[in-house]
Amino acid sequence: MRATIISPIYVRDSDYYDLGTAAIATAISATKRHQASVIDFAFVWSQWEEHVKKHLLKFKPQLIGISTYSPKMPLVLNVARLCKEVLPGVKIVLGGHHASLDTLETLKQDCIDFVVVGEGENTILQLLDTIEDNPGKGYHNIPFLAFKEGDKFIENPLGKLPTAKELTEFPFNDWTLWEHHEKSIFHSGYLPVIGVRGCPYKCSFCSSPILAERLSGTGPFVRQKSALRTAQEVAWQWERHQKHGLRYIMFYDQNFLISAKWLEDFCTEYRRLDMHEKLPFSCYSRLDHLTKEKLDMAKAAGCIQLRVGIESGNQEVRDKLLNKELSQEMLIEKMKLLNDSGINSLGYFIIGNPKETYAQAYESFKVAKELKLNRAAFFFLTPLYNIPLQKDVKVNFLEMDRSLGFAFPSTVTEGLSGFSKILLILLFYRANGWFLLKNLFTQLRKRGISFLLNFPGYYRIARSDGFDFEQSLLQYAYYHGDSFLY
Predict the structure, then answer these.
(1) Against a cut of 0.90, is the pTM above it?
(2) Residues near 191 by beta carbon (within 8 Å), at least 6 away in sequence
(3) I want to staple 269 with a disulfide (CB 3.0 to 4.6 A). Which of 42, 94, 231, 284 is the partner?
């Protein structure tokens, strides 16, 4: 069978990649029995409808899979309806966080035939085999699947999540299936890789704790793929994509430094493969996981940036509201440790938390500067299905279009926070603008006048690829060429 997997992002942001989409498409392609294609909206943002039509009419898939995320649900349904118009007989399956958490309401949409709960590699293969071998029957035997049967909505029992051993044996993500992978690598410089799935923490603004609860009884939620295999995947991606301008790896593990043993095994293998000399990497970590030994190992293996979720500079907001469990003393202590390690830091902050005052939100900007972060990114609180932070707020994600991304406060964010939309936006641009200027001055100091002289040439390429000036500037300043190294 032919299956098309869609990553529906039709706004001009730098969210080029989706690991779930890539994993599903790769799993299908690796069977040799089925064929997979990926529709990637990057660089065709304003022409996405024509792009989808052209792709579907050429490939003629019998199944279309679409990744879901709560703020993008109206967008997802727009894409699904267009697919049904182009290919009326096609079956459409939704997966991802929102479909997993709000399964029944998602399935009730007239353009949706199936919903996959949880991680979908094994489920999608069983579904494809069943549709091909026994169309219209056999769906009851597929774990993690929800489907329509006449006017009934059926949710099958959950099965078992892929084990750590299975994750290790999964094929490496084939980014050549990604339509615009060459452009994405050229502009961003990176590819995403993940070694450990799941997170054991219960931050109130995150959907992972809710997903862990939804998948209760299916096996361990946190699973570590072999550290050696993870390092080998990076080497494999490097061999395939160095010619496209691959300059670093972005690890998407939520807690890359959580296990000292796993980190040691990874770093040892990464160095054995000489990847520490070829391809530096960036990774996420909680600050309370940091030790000098871990930081020394990571740096020696090529870690050039650690991305840390600070979320708020105010401890009351951070701990009592966001459930980060990070004291001000530990924040200062661990940031000093990180700064002394020589690894660059990127701190994430949330603006517009429920009942947060302007003074508390402004404290995040102040603390970000005091901590001497190399970079900081301030985002508006983004509503997600059923997260504890919004337990008293009902949001209809199927109608609330938040496709503009983290840089625009939703009506929910504005209503929850303790200050006005105008102040939200002013603080957002002041905080991000200050760190953008800091980064630009750093680039000038490190790279000299060539940093400025090379921008017009880059801008011509970026504009031809659909970027506007603001996106081109941000991409050039933070990611393109050597920008990420400083």
Answers:
(1) yes
(2) 17, 175, 185, 237, 241, 246, 249, 250
(3) 231
